[in-house]
Amino acid sequence: MYFEKRLENTWKQKAVGNKKVSVLWRRQDKRCLCCNQLITQETGWNIHHKVERVKGGGNELSNLELLHPNCHRQKHSRAAGYDRIVS
Q1: Element spanning 64, H or E
Q2: Chain-centre distance of CA 34, in angstroms?
């Protein structure tokens, strides 16, 4: 519990100014929705649009999710027809 609280406090301090990131992080139980591993300052994150903006998706919270950078790249690679997983 101590480390979880510490992680949350560090996250809040560094995510100040980006309320959406903080809300998404808490809503997702601090985890990447692709690999289910914790998202931390060290792992980094990308904001993914479930419905791409070019296809009419917006920036509302219901259309956004936090993913690790590598998971985000893989998700877009699969969507583009590339099935090879990059590690």
Answers
A1: strand 64-67
A2: 9
